[in-house]
Write a structure and sequence with these properties.
The protein is α/β, with parallel strands linked by helices. It contains 18 helices and eleven strands. β8, α11 (about 275-285) and β9 form a beta-alpha-beta unit. α2 (about 65-85) crosses α17, α3 crosses α17 and α15 (about 350-365) runs antiparallel to α17 (about 375-395). The longest helix has 19 residues, at about 65-85.
Length: about 450
């Protein structure tokens, strides 16, 4: 990682005539930007795109190959070019936010010849469908990177999902606790309840529910790495009598339970398997049961196009991943189960804050991450990934929701339960804004 004020690295080779041609093509694609400003530094020349705004950033080209890759490969090749070290950016999150505010210009990057490359990426995504065997390999590709790696920068709960911040002073661990407990309060968990959790992670929710509410939890994961840590944590907490850990695909689960929880697992289900997922959820619940899922969601506008495309996350981070939309979930529920939506809330700003804290912790432990054997390309990939996601939530391009569904014989009052869940959400700074102020120059910002 390069310090913010360190000298800029020189380009590794002089630009060729073809490089200059590709640069002109790229500049034309960027020329329509209006909201925010990008400064493109290439050697001694600087070009400005967009209008002066509180949101600004600078790209510094290290290798002229960047222009060819950007024009011929579009946004995915731009990402790959960053991972390979072809270009630097003062503020990656700001860059992604500017592109989200100028989506027509961003779309132009994926036009023309880059469509050919997109076809290759679509085949890659199609080949990673979430069949039972495919799901296991897709999950392993991300979550089995190494428990030591994730434990360096996640909080002590090992929650790898958005927290909920009760105040601007809340730590990441505080936010993870509130996320878990908010789900428990919505479900009105009690000691006599049986709970099924689809997607164990490293055991954070199961431990929270069993230790704080005295209920019995059955939880499942198809990640061997996660299962090993979760089992050890359950043993250490002395909760083997209360928590049963399975390593089963959700499609193979049996039995009926009072409550069901699934935290940011649905993104690994895949659009074509949503009906199967919700059908199984309905089957696992008793006739008066209730469930809460936490899900990252796409907006309805443009969702059909999203399903036809392959984005950075799907190509480089989560093979087989696919975000649902709220409508896609509701339509699937209607087709496949007797569940009914009773409550839904979006807390996208809290995911932006979560990602900032994760990235801060990631870079605070960068030397330890390197000592585990992860190279600079891996580190750049993860920095790109965390900034990419943060921008999406800050600009509300994506959201994160907790959605509660009840079975037909459930007679709990959702308004009263929601009021109870919110009543405990006390904060002494009612103007809490987890989003950063774009006009400030933050001292803790990360630069590569």
């Amino acid at each position: 990682m390069r310090a913010k004020n360190s000298p800029e690295p020189a380009a590794e080779k002089a630009p060729t005539t073809m490089d200059r041609m590709f640069r002109r093509v790229l500049e034309k694609k960027l020329s329509g930007m209006q909201r925010g400003q990008i400064r493109l530094h290439d050697g001694d020349s600087v070009n400005h795109f967009g209008e002066t705004d509180s949101l600004q950033t600078a790209i510094r080209v290290r290798r002229p190959d960047f222009f060819r890759k950007a024009v011929l490969g579009g946004t995915l090749s731009v990402a790959e070019s960053y991972i390979q070290g072809d270009w630097e950016c003062d503020d990656l999150t700001a860059l992604f936010r500017i592109f989200l505010r100028n989506r027509k210009s961003a779309t132009r990057l994926d036009s023309g010849l880059s469509r050919v490359v997109k076809t290759v990426h679509k085949f890659y995504h199609w080949a990673h469908a979430n069949t039972k065997s495919g799901s296991k390999s897709n999950i392993a590709a991300h979550y089995d990177l190494g428990n030591d790696f994730f434990s360096l920068w996640l909080d002590e709960t090992l929650a790898y999902s958005s927290g909920i911040f009760r105040s601007s002073r809340a730590t990441m661990a505080d936010a993870s606790f509130e996320k878990f407990d908010r789900i428990c309060r919505k479900l009105e968990l009690k000691s006599s309840d049986s709970v099924i959790e689809i997607g164990t992670g490293w055991g954070g929710f199961a431990l929270h529910a069993a230790s704080n509410y005295g209920c019995r939890v059955t939880t499942t994961t198809i990640s061997g790495e996660q299962a090993a840590v979760a089992r050890a944590r359950i043993d250490q907490a002395g909760l083997n009598h209360a928590i049963s850990l399975l390593q089963s695909d959700y499609r193979d689960l049996t039995g009926q339970f009072d409550k069901l929880v699934s935290i940011e697992m649905i993104e690994a289900v895949g659009y074509r398997y949503l009906d199967e997922y919700f059908r199984k959820c309905g089957e696992l619940l008793k006739p008066d049961g209730s469930m809460v899922i936490q899900a990252i969601v796409m907006p309805e506008k443009g969702y059909a196009q999203y399903l036809k495309s392959v984005d950075f996350i799907q190509r480089f981070v989560f093979p087989g991943g696919c975000l649902p939309s709220n409508a896609a979930m509701l339509e699937s529920v209607g087709r496949s189960s007797d569940l009914r939506l009773v409550y839904l809330e979006d807390f996208a700003p809290h995911y932006a804050q979560t990602l900032r804290l994760w990235r801060k912790a990631f870079h605070e432990h960068i030397d330890e991450i390197r000592s585990l054997g992860y190279d600079e390309s891996f580190i750049r990939l993860w920095d790109y990934y965390l900034c990419y996601c943060e921008a999406g939530f800050e600009e509300r391009y994506i959201g994160v929701v907790q959605a509660q569904f009840d079975k037909p014989l459930c007679r709990r009052d959702p308004i009263r339960i929601a009021d109870q869940a919110h009543r405990m959400f006390e904060t002494d700074d009612s103007d809490f804004r987890p989003l950063r102020d774009n006009s400030e120059n933050h001292a803790d910002s990360i630069r590569i």
